[in-house]
Each structure stands twice: as C-alpha cells, then as structure tokens.
Amino acid sequence: MRRKFQNSISGAVILLIVSFAYPAKKKINVYLIGDSTMCTYESNRTPLAGWGMPFANFFDSSVKIDNRARGGRSTRTFISENRWQPIADSLQEGDYVLMQFGHNDEAKEERYKDRYTPVPDYKTNLIKFIAETRAKKAIPVLITPVTRMRFDKEGKIQETHKEYSAAVWEIGISYNTPVIDLDTKSRDLLHQLGAVNSKLLFMQLDSLEHPNYPVGQKDNTHFNEYGARRIAELVLTEIKKLKLELADRIIVTPLRSK
Amino acid sequence: MRKASLLFGFLALMAVDFSEKKKIKIWMIGDSTMSIKEKKAWPETGWGMPFTNFWDSTVTVDNRAKNGRSTKSFMTEGLWKAVTDELTEGDYVFIQFGHNDEVPTKKTATTPEEFKTNLIKYITETSNKKAIPVLLTSVARRKFDSTGKLESTHEAYSAITRTVAKETNVLFIDIDKKSQALLQDIGVEGSSYLFNQLKPGEHPNYPDGVEDNTHFSELGARKIAQLVLSEIRNLKIELAERIIIPAVKK
User: Fold this and answer.
1) Smallest CA–CA separation between B125 and chain A, in Å?
2) Cα→Cα distances B18→A43, B6, B64, B229, Å
3) pTM of the predicted model, to two decimals?
4) Chain A residues within an 8 Å CB radius of B226
5) Chain A, 210-249: which have a CB under 8 Å from a chain B CB?
6) ipTM score for this prediction
C-alpha cells in the first residue's frame, strides 16, 4: 500500500517534471553555414551528400535545421553574395549558427581566386559571424573544416587544413566560442578506417556504377551518403561533449531489446 | 545548312523517342532487405530506396516490400492482391523473397515446395496482367568463416529460386551470388560498413548500438541497388533504356 502510494507520488512528480520540461522547450532554428561538404544536394546528384543532410535527422521536433551551406563558398563569398545577412536578420534568441568554412578560403590556386580568403580575412569573417550571432542572443559554434582524404605512402593520414583549422581554434579561444574540431575528429575516423576502407565514405564510383555519374568519380573531398552520415555523427558526439543545450534536443529513442 | 538539317533531324528523333516512351511502374515485392524504412529505423536502408533514383521520368518505382514478409505472408495479408489489382501491361514486378521463408522457426516460414509454388504464383499472375516479372534470389547475409571466406546463407532457397527461373524462363537476377562476390571483395571489415552496424551512442535511433549482418546501411543498400542495376543492363531489357541519363556537366 505504502509502496503503491510512493509510486503514485513519484509518478506524479515525473509527470509534473515532464509537463514542465516539454512546453518549456522553445522551438529553435539551427542554421548551418559552410561549403559543399555541409550543404544539401538535389537527388540528381545523389549519392553525393553534405553532412548537414543526415545531421537534420538527429533532432526532435523543437529543432529546425536550416542548411544554408553552399558549394564553393568561402567566408568571404558567403558574405559578399548576401547569404549571411538574411540569416543575421532572422536570427532569434536561442537559435544556433554552426559554421564550417575553410575548403574554399584556403584554395590558393589561380583558378580559385574568386573564393580564396587569406587567413587574417578568414578570421575577421568568423569574428563577424560570431559577433552578429551573439548580437541576436543566438549561439555561435565554430567547426574546423572536415578533413580531405589524403594518406601518405605509409598509409598515414595527412593534415589537409593546418592553417585554417588553427585559425578556427584561435578565434574560438579568443572569443570564447565553442569549437568542434571536426578536422581532427574526421582524421581520426579515416585513420581508424584505413586508406582502403576510407574510400567508402567518399564520392568514389566506377564508371556506370551509378547513373548520375556515368564516367565514374574519384573525389577525396566530397562525401557520399554514408560518409556524410558518419561525419554528422562525429559532429553530434561533439555537441554532446560540449554540453550545448542543443544536446537536450537530440531525439530520444528507448533502448531496443535485443 | 546540312549541319542544321542534321541537327534538326537529331532533335526530331529525340522528341519522338521521348514521347513514345510509355509511363510504367516497377513494383517491388519482398522483405526487409528491400523495403522502405521508417525514419525512426534510419540509417537502416532497404535497397529499394536508392533504387528509385536510377530512373527517368517515365518510371515510377512502387516499393511494396515489407519487413518480415515471406512469399506466404505477403499473400495472406493481401499485400499481393493490392499489387495485382493495379498491375498494368508493361509494368515490371521485382520479386525477392527468402529471408523469412527459409527459417523453419519463423511463423512466416514456407517449405521448399510452398516456396516454389508461391514464386510461380507471383510470376504467373504478373504475366496474366501482361506485366513483366523479374525474379531475384535473396541478398546475401554477412557471414564469414574464420579464414575470411564468405559463407553462403541462402543455399537451399536460392537454389529453388534459380530452378523456378529456369523452368519458367523468367527474367532472373542472381543477387545472392552477386552480393556474395561484393562482400567477399570488400572483405570482412569493409563489408561491415555496408550493414546497419552502429556503436552505442553513435546514432540517436540506436542508443545502445546495433550489430546487424542482414540489414543494410545506406551505403550497403545503394551498393546492392547498383548491382541490380548492373544486372538489368546485362539482361538488355527494355527497362535498361529508362535508366536516367544526366545532363552533360561542363
């Protein structure tokens, strides 16, 4: 009898907590800004996928993932093409801005001069994103650029964004902004998979294997749907580790009985 | 001038070619290895899901495959009747069962005789509607022996499917054999990424992780769909002319 009473009390307490916890969850937007490794692709380019695509499946109904990342953009062109201002304008308190640039900022080759952004400018632009996000009481999160697949002859994974990842860390520390070191985490993943199996994550197709790529593809930068999901999982793990409030909005699934 | 008329002729040919292509449906009947997964089961993926991306606008893929179904339960639950009610001349029906037929302890199990009879029934009823049956063996499970050699996991029921294909002279894709070769080629470790294998905490849909050697990840599902596509090309059937042709990229 007493136990029953206690049970109903604890039941009531749980109900009370739950009923407060749920309506308290304000709806938020999570903006993703970045480049081709993050963006959304149309089905005519599948299996090509940015990690923002599977990332959108990880959150409960209180979160709207708004993936504004675009292929080929650097911090500079993202701003100059007026892609940032509309986001800054619509940001609400409690929203997030997850930013991952670098692939195009660091492209020094002549043919990429339209996007190249030297490190000092890259830092200035990141600071702008952070400041304007905070001005709206929204939360900026810095992400180092996801690694390219480059192994040396001994099968050791190489760093491909040294300068720009270091710049992200510098800004993160100076401006007290959370950093997800996706460059390092993705390199760890590729190291663990090894030179051969890492290819399974990237846009590597033999000719005629997929009708969207009749002549095949050998791409060590862009992910297929599987690689995109593995990268999105890495980002999610870091969000949990950083204990961002966003982590409380990850979908909750009851443990499965095996 | 001559160039211009050539160009015009070419354009005219193309226009005719496109307008003449009748719209058709590919119906897919089968089990969980083929079916569309609910969002809460992702990243588990049936190979029928990426398979829909391969076709031009004249083709609609209608994937009716359902988790846990055998040749028997797919019929007794009325799932097959729902297909035959709508089947139209020129449609294709991809038939792939076995996983839930071949395990005697399952409620859905069929004896070898029943399995054979049911497959023939699917084929006959498809042909009766002037639609085109395509029979497939079950896709391989990931089971390696201690020396790293893949073990066959559908031996008996794939053999029955092969026999039925031969006896009925139906279009046939031996995906059991093809997928075994694929898994063997990718190897013990690499092939694990083709299946729904997740560490605890890795994906919110599987908080305690999962180690599945039957059901695919999005990568495995696509690789299997690509194998099926490659066999469709090899069969040189009319359907192969409806594979999507991307606009030429600059």
Assistant:
1) 31
2) 21, 18, 28, 21
3) 0.91
4) 209-210
5) 210-214, 224-226, 229, 233, 236-237, 240
6) 0.90
Answer yes or no: do A229 and B50 touch at CB < 8 A.
no
- Across the A:B interface, residue pairs with CB atoms under 8 Å apart total 72
Q: Would you list the DSSP string of A36-104?
A: TTTS---GGGTTB--THHHHGGGB-TTEEEEE---TT--HHHHHHTTSSHHHHHH--TT-EEEEE--TT
Contact criterion met (CB < 8 Å) for B204 and A256: no
pLDDT confidence of residue B201: 95
**A235: its two tokens:** 């980002």
Q: Which residues of A touch B230 (CB under 8 A)?
A: 208-209
Looking at residue B18, what is its pLDDT? 53
Identify whether B202 is a catalytic site residue.
no
How high is the mean pLDDT in each 10-residue block of chain A (258 residues)? 54 55 81 98 97 98 98 98 98 98 96 96 98 98 98 94 97 98 98 97 97 97 98 98 98 74
- Please write the tens of the pLDDT for every residue from B212-232: 999 999 999 999 999 999 999
Token pair for residue A145? 């650029």
CA distance B161 to chain A (A): 26
Give the pLDDT score at A253: 86
What is the three-class DSSP state of A145?
coil
